[in-house]
Write a structure and sequence with these properties.
Number of helices: 10
Number of strands: 6
Structural class: alpha+beta
Shape: elongated
Radius of gyration: 38 Å
Largest sheet: 6 strands, antiparallel
């Protein structure tokens, strides 16, 4: 089952710069021993809107008392801008700042979300160590193709502008760091960026199928980077973009083989998305993704396994067991499916045993109570019969005595 749809990093040398993150082998998710443990739920939606931009500067400094005594018409404020005035606090929390080094072509030339941009980038640690320089780096703005610091700040730049960006690790490579470029864990970065160009992304309907497949695969691989780093919400976002590319209608000729390749890419994206959604405990979303996969490939083992896993979490043990048995039939030697199925069968048996014990107890108490009531009714009925008979005999005896006395 170790195929290319696994959530692994398979980026080529051409897109290593964009897909900056740790790489791993192409081992199967199931065969790799992944236990699919459930993590704390996090919000699956990505905030697409930047918070209001805020200039942290305090305006021009007030003139000194000595200057105030000088006539207004002879005073020229030559106070240089302070450091706070030069820096723009992008998020208002001091963790992502931008300073213009060279102005650009004006605010109207700023790129828009979804456009393809090209930049020059120099990445340095805060001690001045240069870890990477990239010329003509291209990516789609706000698609998650690059670190957050770039997505959030490049859209504030003008074409031709050169800027200095300071970003804490949270908006760079986080606690894991990166191997390419070589960034230590929890490292803050200084980025020197020049925006060279910005242009609308090509129309997917007019894009040649081979290019669509390649583009979808790059987005999927970026999702794999996010997945490997534990950024599951960002992974879902990247896989979703890749799915949109595969599902777009086409106004150009497409061969049968290309249709099959697009479908295969769609299935890979759906499977990887289900894996990320499972990590987020978004069970209904996982089921939808798995059902979509199985609609195209009914014997897809990964989709069957994840569907069975979610059904078990939702308490649908019988259906989950049937689903996992179907997966095991396709891969009889898969140890992960064996372990999950064994655990589930045991849990189901325990549940059935507990239910049977409860029903038996309920039925037993009902029977005993009915028997007791029946005995009580029987005893009461017998007592009344005996009392009635004794009374009748007594009355008969008195009547007979009266008759005999009358005759005498």
């Amino acid at each position: 089952m170790a195929d290319s749809e696994d959530v692994t990093v398979n980026g080529s040398a051409d897109n290593q710069a964009v897909l900056s993150g740790k790489k791993s082998g192409r081992a199967s998710l199931l065969d790799s021993g992944e236990d699919f443990e459930m993590l704390e739920d996090v919000d699956d939606d990505i905030d697409d809107d930047l918070p209001p931009l805020e200039d942290a500067g305090g305006g021009k400094k007030k003139q000194s008392a000595a200057n105030d005594s000088i006539k207004a018409d002879t005073v020229v404020d030559q106070t240089p801008p302070t450091e706070q005035e030069e820096w723009l606090d992008v998020l208002g929390n001091g963790q992502l700042r931008k300073k213009v080094l060279e102005p650009g072509a004006g605010a109207d030339s700023r790129p828009q979300r979804g456009q393809n941009v090209t930049i020059h980038l120099k990445t340095s640690l805060t001690d001045g160590t240069v870890v990477e320089e990239q010329q003509n780096l291209s990516f789609t703005l706000c698609d998650g193709d690059v670190i957050q610091a770039l997505d959030l700040t490049v859209q504030l730049m003008e074409t031709g502008e050169k800027a200095l960006i300071e970003a804490v690790a949270k908006y760079a490579f986080g606690g894991l760091g990166s191997s390419t470029p070589a960034v230590p864990p929890n490292a803050d970065l200084t980025l020197e960026v020049q925006l060279l160009s910005a242009a609308d992304a090509p129309d997917l309907e007019l894009m040649p199928p081979s290019e669509r497949i390649s583009l979808a695969n790059r987005k999927r691989e970026r999702g794999n980077v996010h997945y490997q780093r534990g950024d599951y919400a960002f992974a879902v976002n990247s896989y979703g973009i890749a799915l949109q590319i595969t599902e777009a209608s086409s106004r150009v000729d497409i061969s049968q083989q290309e249709e099959e390749e697009l479908l295969d890419m769609k299935v890979k994206c759906l499977n990887n998305m289900a894996a990320a959604q499972l990590k987020l405990d978004h069970y209904e979303a996982v089921l939808r993704s798995c059902v979509s996969v199985l609609a195209h490939q009914p014997d897809n083992v990964k989709a069957l396994f994840r569907k069975g896993k979610v059904l078990a979490v939702q308490g649908e043990y019988a259906e989950a067991i049937r689903t996992l048995k179907g997966a095991l039939k396709l891969e009889p030697s898969n140890k992960t499916i064996h372990a999950e199925l064994s655990k589930l069968v045991k849990k189901h048996s325990e549940q059935k045993g507990a239910e049977q014990a409860m029903y038996k107890k309920m039925l037993g108490n009902t029977s005993n109570t009915s028997a007791q009531k029946h005995c009580a009714r029987s005893s009461w009925s017998l007592s009344w019969k005996w009392l009635f008979g004794a009374t009748a005999v007594a009355i008969g005896g008195v009547a007979l005595s009266v008759v005999i006395a009358a005759r005498n």
